[in-house]
Amino acid sequence: MVSSASTGKAAAFLALHSGPGFILPNAWDAGSARVFEQLGFPAIATTSAGIAWSLGLPDGGPVDRDTMLDHIGGIAAAVAVPVTADLEDGYGDTADAVAGTVAAVTALGVVGANIEDARDRVLFDIGDATDRIAAAREAAPRGTFVLNARTDAYFVGAAGDPFDEAVERANRYVEAGADCIFVPGVSDADTIRRLAAAIPAPLNIVAGLASSMPAPELFALGVRRVSVGGGIARAALSFVERAGRELLDTGTLGFLDGATSYAETQARFGG
Asked: How confident is the model over 22-63, as pLDDT tens digits?
């Protein structure tokens, strides 16, 4: 049973897709999610890559479903804004298994998710991929959950024209119940504009992966949802590396310049 609070969050999250465009920051733990919420973001996404890296593991498979759901649940519990989860390929070999994953994440209070159509850098058969989206939709009905179907036609490569492949898959996924279509790996403005025009649903583009265009430029091309994937997590880990290198090489503390104080950080988390 989906709670009225979750339904309200889902409605608010879905409404963002009808506006001029919005940015989703991707959190990897409860602390990063709290920071994004306090900055004023109206919704937050998780990043499977960032969660994997926080566990000392690579992205793309080593983190099992239950571990990922534990971390997603911690993020959702830490904030009051809508949370959408990166569920990779749905953590299952069958459509029924994908449905089970979606049902499990809705029980955590999450009100949206990405489902990918590839594994190990190989696209699923389009029929199989469509069945997985349909199963996810059945597990989380419209109005209670925002289903973002991701096609990796560009990210991993298609046998033919990636544009045609992405558009065909997008149309099939929308027919199967997807609310939004996510196409990572696209970098040029003309292709993004054409995708936004050809896909009959809001288009999600990830900034900082293939495309370095800022969000306002993407919105002008017709994109409605901009996420950053593991980008902020990568930036945070890069800072940790620079700070560690400074300590190791010189013993100086320049990396603390501009850092919030202990008291300010405590106050951010209610201490």
From this structure: 999 999 999 999 999 999 999 999 999 999 999 999 998 899
Both tokens of 90, joined, read 């749905």
- Residue at token pair 């970098």: 187
- Choose among 80, 93, 91, 130: nearest CA to 113: 91
Q: What is the CATH number of domain 4-229?
A: 3.20.20.60
Contacts for 89 with CB less than 8 Å, ≥ 6 apart: 98, 115, 116, 117, 118, 119, 124, 132
- 83 and 46 in contact (C-beta within 8 Å)? yes
Query: If DSSP codes are grouped into helix, strand and coil, which group holds residue 16?
Result: helix
Q: Give the pairing type, strands 118-119 and 122-123.
A: antiparallel
Quote the CA–CA distance of 256 and 254 in Å, as a whole number.
5
Q: Does an H or E element contain 18, and which?
A: none
pLDDT tens by residue, 122-133: 999 999 999 999
Are 21 and 224 in contact by the 8 Å Cβ rule? The answer is yes
Question: Across the beta sheet with 22-24, what order do the strands follow?
Answer: 22-24, 225-227, 203-206, 180-182, 146-150, 112-116, 83-86, 44-46, 26-27
21: left (phi over 0), alpha (psi -120 to 50) or beta: left
How is the chain split into domains, by residue range? 4-229, 231-271
pLDDT one-digit tens code per residue, 253-263: 999 999 999 99
Phi, psi dihedral angles at 39 (to 5 degrees): -75, -20
Can you tell me whether residue 218 is helix, strand or coil? helix
Q: What pTM was computed for the model?
A: 0.95
C-alpha angle 210/196/204, rounded to 5°?
50
- Here the tokens at position 109 are 């209070």
